[in-house]
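User: My instructor asked us to take a sequence, write out its structure as tokens, and then describe one feature of it. I'm not sure where to start. Here is the sequence I was given:
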Amino acid sequence: MPPDDGCVHEIESLLERRCFETARRKCLQAISLNQGDSPRLKMLLHSALVFLGEIGAAQVLVHQMLATSDANATELTILLAEDYHLLTQNGSYRSSTEAKEGLTEEEFNERMRKRSAQYFEKAAQLAQTESLKRTLDAALMRCGRIVNPTPEVIVDGTATGQMPQSASLRGLLRFVDGQPVGQATVTLGLAFNFEAPDPTTYLEPDIGYAFKGEEQKVLVTHTDLLGRFIFEEVPIGRHEFLAVTLDPQQFNIPTRFFAQGIEIGSEAENYVEATIDEWESAPPDAREHAFEKTLNRLGVEYRLISSLTLKNPFYYEFPRQLISFKGQAASGFPQRLLVNSSNEAQVFQQDGDRVMFFAQLAARGSEGYALYRAENPGGAIPAEDDFTPNVEGDSTAVIDTGRAKFRIPWGNQNIELPPLISIQGEDGKWRGKGRWVLPEGCRILNREITIQKTGPLFLEIHLQYDLSNGGKYTIRLGAQRGEATLSAH
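Assistant: Let's start with the prediction itself. The structure tokens for your sequence are:
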């Protein structure tokens, strides 16, 4: 029985959304429910296993598929070749049979590379159609085993091989003082294909990634005494770069790239003119957020104390969490105003000379925050209510973060109650029954509960117990408004 298309599409969607463990379980369930063999589901299962780092299990699956059918033998052989290549990159050495045999990591990697090469060679013998050959080429490129045709021989401005439709490119180069760049080498980097991982979905364990692409082909010519140059035949299209190489005896940095993304049109002649200047590093990324020195809110004048810019250079979201920066000690929150780069007021909490607030950043995003002091504090914006436990009767209280609740002991009654009694999760159900596990014969003599820190955002409570064996037990509970967790130290 063929796999249900809806099920396959669901698993493909899970893989696209990087829900790899769920995709693996869905595949196993779907395979077990199908009476017939399902290569399509098994291929999806293979992808899920690879993404989960279970390369060995993925290889076993491929060998089972090869043993039961000759169908898709080329694609399966290519998968085995890629799997062996992955074993050299995902930290598989430590748990490998080779490590137990005493092989070094270098020897393990060399063995995996050889097996990968053997399967690629076998796949090359099996690939008889153009489609299969293209699939093999793509896999070779992913594994850094690109087989390119012999490069064209480049002589001044002209390639000796077969060229596509072409046009000429003329140019003129001068130095900043107007003098011609004479008798210098000019290089045109031609368009080429390359493969780079999508940084938003890149999950490899290695730092960085290997560049995978064709060999860069170039055309080379020279300027005359007046700084003029010409490429007689350049393929029509967009090319990578133009560079000039100066006399290394006179210039510390002889190679200067003076153009990128060169468009060669179908007209008979294209022209470029450039000034060759001293090389300078690109300016730093200027994403600092600027804030006004003063603000007026509800008739109150505020003056800037300090500011902070947060930057997220990564391709994933920076989740909501407490951030702090130095903002001068303050007595009384109405005297302060925290705004973001859109001048929207932010709830914050002062902790000594630190300003604490919640922030989150989008992928590749940035946000600025500024702290202001009211010039006439009496009319300042009222502060948010403090975050404090809700007392229940004589012996318990509840810390309510808005997403979860935590019942703790309170007051001077029932001193034997444990530091955490029960928890209510986001589903609204109370769970658990806290209890002590004390040495035999040991009991609680005294308990002190103190609120160490409180404010609109976070709460810190200390519970100290005196034990009958002379020991003390202290626990520090921390809660943050809007979070479903409680920290304990």
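For the description part of your assignment, you could build on this observation: Residues 294-379 form a domain with the Immunoglobulin-like fold (CATH 2.60.40.1180). Try explaining in your own words what that tells you about the chain.
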